[in-house]
Amino acid sequence: MGYASSDHGDAPLAVKILIAGGFGVGKTTLVGAVSEVAPLRTEEYLTHASVGVDDLEGVGGKSTTTVALDFGRITIHRGLVLYLFGTPGQERFWFMWNDLVNGALGAVVLVDTRRLDVSFASIDFFESRGIPFVVGVNCFHGVRDRAPEEIRKALDLDPQVPLVLCDARDRAAGRDVLLALIDHLMAVRSRTTRHPVA
Amino acid sequence: MRHWTEGFEDDDADEPLVRPYTITGGRTAPERDDLTLITLVSAIPGGSADTGTGLRRMQPEHRAILALCERPLAVAEVSSALNLPVSVTKILIGDLIEAGRVRARPPLAFAQAGGIPDMTILEAVRDGLRKL
């Protein structure tokens, strides 16, 4: 295939999708539902260097604080592996998102209808960076108390951004959210191919 | 006069038994900045894990990485398996790249360039997800 390369032995190509949203919206749950392995956790130090000009308040000023990242893996085929990374929920860790965003196909922003506001910032982030995303409304508490149009309005969502209802615990539902993102990426791609941006 | 080791225990109370940067010989930054979380690392077949060719001092963690990466693994996966922070893991992987013991395959940078990935890749991901 076109993207296979013989320069790297038989190593597959890695791609990733970010699973974003506020604290407690079910990011790790979604990663775990679709991943072929139990969600893995890795840690990174917060240092002055990595914090950069960000507000140091609450970070402690010493390089002892760590931020945890949960991620999963889906082997697409021998030559292609998809990684799913949950983004750190707390806003003070957002400087890390630049690293996370690099090489990402796109993102799923999970929202909880009871606490839509905790995911506002994630939506803002991807909108401002022009990174394609879909919104997954996590109905894990079994309550579909708000119509999709109402949620869309409350999130002030661009009409082109797909919004899908899901249960982050359910493998098929999680898969469908990821598929919605891929379809969205394909749509965006065919639009930009037809009208190339100078 | 206080001995230089006095007070070390208190300082280390909240730290792991071995401070991770001890493993890297005190280095806190990788020499290469091209390793990402999903850069895939694979051991180059042929080199025995016991011979430290090209590496002056092979740490147990280096050997562990070589063993793990007989199958290509992402930097994040190696970090998770070794229970070491990503930055420390990157330094150790960098050592092994330098020594010619592993090769790294970087991911394609889409979001960086503000681009959308190749249709071939999107189709492959879609087809793979449908089989889940």
Summarize the SSE layout with pairings:
The complex is a heterodimer of chains A (198) and B (132).
Chain A (H helix, E strand, L loop, with lengths): L12 E8 L6 H8 L5 E6 L2 H4 L14 E12 L2 E7 L10 H5 L2 E8 L8 H10 L3 E6 L9 H8 L7 E4 L4 H24 L4
Parallel strand pairs in A: 1-4, 1-5, 5-6, 6-7
Antiparallel strand pairs in A: 2-3, 3-4
Chain B lengths: L7 H4 L8 H4 L16 E4 L16 H9 L4 E2 H8 L3 H13 L3 E4 L13 H12 L2
Antiparallel strand pairs in B: 1-2, 1-3
Helix pairs in contact in B: 3-5, 4-5
Describe the structure.
- The complex is a heterodimer of chains A (198) and B (132).
- Chain A is globular and about 50 Å long.
- Chain A has a seven-stranded mixed beta sheet with strand order 2-3-4-1-5-6-7, sandwiched between helices.
- Chain A is built from six helices and seven strands, in the order E-H-E-H-E-E-H-E-H-E-H-E-H.
- Chain A starts with 12 loop residues before the first strand and ends with a helix.
- Chain A is an alpha/beta fold and 198 residues long.
- Chain B is mainly alpha-helical and 132 residues long.
- Helices cover 38% and strands 8% of the residues of chain B.
- Chain B contains six helices and three strands; from the N terminus they run H-H-E-H-E-H-H-E-H.
- At the A-B interface, strand 1, strand 2, strand 3, strand 4 and helix 3 of A face helix 4 and helix 6 of B.
